[in-house]
Amino acid sequence: MSRYYLGLDSSTQSLTVLLIDAESSHIQAEYSLNYAQELPHYGVSDGFLPVEIAGEVHAPPLMWVEALDRLLLKMQYDGLPMQAIIAVSGAAQQHGTVYLNSKFEKTLKTLHSKTALQKQLQDCFSRQSSPIWMDSSSSKQCAEINQAFGGADEVNRTTGSVVIERFSGPQIKKFADSQPQAYKQTSHIMLVSSFMASLFVGRPVGVDYTDASGTNLFDIAKKQWQPEILHFCGEQLAEKLSAAVNPQSLLGRIAPYFVQRYGFNPDCLVLPWCGDNPSSLIGLGLIDPGMTAISLGTSDTVFGLLKVLPKSMSPWAHTFIAPTLDYMSLLCFKNGSLAREAIRNRYQLSWEGFNQQLAVTPPGNHGAMMLPWFENEIVPKVDQAGVRRFNLDENDIAANCRAVIEAQMMAMRHHAELAGLSPTSIRATGGASQNLTILQIMADIFNCPVEALETTNGTALGSAIRAIVTVEKRPWQDVVNSF
Ligand code: ADP
Ligand code: XUL
Question: Is 128 in the pocket of ligand 1 (CB under 6 A)?
Answer without folding.
Answer: no
